[in-house]
Design a protein that fits this description.
mainly alpha, two-stranded antiparallel ribbon, 1% strand
């Protein structure tokens, strides 16, 4: 079996395993944990498409999250659309914002810290705009009425939401698998490693990065739309706040950049840590961000490939040890 087929089989087994959880338990604690872990994995996967496979680190991915959430809310409250139609607009609108930001940034060759700061600046601009214009509810925000039904994407338990977000995660996993095995993905990783070399063999870095940021923005917008449907409220601070951007990038880095399963692993680990710290230090606000920072520093120092890269790191160390033994024996 080829590596690509093994990955596809793994995706199918993962989806089947998670989909079976709501069938075997009615525990609200377990179902809520699974739902929020999948939600965090979706955000991390969205960031990983651009930051991991594309090498374009973003500090402002809340820009796409908030755009998706607001489009989802406005389309239902002011446009009269059902939640599923609004979802399509939210994903397309967030991808469009990604193309807009990417066109401005990549056209002028911004990358590295410059690109990261541009995305952060755009997120702040959109937050200020959301505070100022009436159709976003300004500082008050927007609230969806509670109308439980499949059409409204509102469910009486977490089970329905789990299946929705699992569909998003599965789609993101398939896109990541495609990036690992397709020509577009090879071009994207070539641009990440060396833009000049990629350009020399006929690859257009501008077009490739634009496609990546559109995909990344679309999935992040789906995360924002899902958040709105679950919690039924959005305001500028939630939509475009730094917490969402930090959660997405830290989970991807902790799990392993540019890998298929890294963002899922990273999201799971950080979500477990968040629950533990919330239970132990609930009276200390912001402690989860401190934990995130400590974990990130530890990963960068001791596991530069992330949790998902532990196997590769161990194999390389073992090979190096074997070569040393062989050298001494010769």
């Amino acid at each position: 079996m080829t590596s690509g087929m093994k990955d596809l089989t793994g995706i199918v087994l993962f989806v089947a395993l998670v989909a079976s959880i709501p069938l075997v338990t009615d525990s609200g604690v377990i179902l809520n944990f699974v739902m929020m872990a999948l939600y965090a994995a979706l955000l991390a996967q969205a960031w990983n498409i651009l930051g991991g496979f594309g090498g374009q680190f973003s500090f402002g991915h809340a820009l796409f999250f908030g755009t998706g959430a607001y489009i989802q809310a406005i389309a239902q409250l002011q446009g009269g659309l059902n939640a599923w139609m609004a979802l399509g607009l939210a994903v397309a609108g967030s991808a469009g914002v990604g193309v807009f930001v990417g066109a401005l940034s990549f056209r002028y060759g911004l990358k590295g810290s410059y690109f990261a700061l541009v995305t952060l600046a755009f997120a702040e601009v959109f937050r200020i705009l959301a505070l100022s214009v009436p159709f976003t509810g300004a500082g008050v925000g927007l609230m969806l009425p509670l109308q439980e039904s499949f059409v409204n994407m509102q469910f009486g338990s977490r089970k329905g939401y789990i299946y929705v977000v699992l569909g998003f995660v599965a789609a993101a996993l398939l896109v990541s698998w495609w990036l690992k095995n397709s020509r577009f993905g090879a071009y994207l990783q070539a641009v990440r490693d060396n833009e000049d070399a990629a350009r020399a063999i006929g690859v257009s870095p501008f077009g490739i990065k634009l496609g990546a940021i559109a995909l990344s923005g679309g999935f992040m917008g789906a995360g924002g739309a899902f958040y709105l449907q679950v919690f039924q409220y959005i305001d500028p601070g939630i939509a475009y706040g730094a917490h969402t951007s930090v959660e997405a990038l830290v989970a991807a880095i902790v799990g392993g950049l540019g890998t298929l399963w890294g963002p899922v692993l990273g999201a799971l680990v950080l979500h477990v840590l968040a629950d533990i710290t919330r239970n132990l230090f609930g009276e200390l606000p912001g402690i989860n961000m401190v934990i995130y920072g400590v974990v990130l520093v530890a990963i960068v120092m001791f596991m530069p490939r992330g949790i998902g890269g532990l196997g590769a790191t161990a194999r390389s160390l073992w090979r190096g040890r074997g070569h040393k033994k062989g050298g001494r024996g010769g």
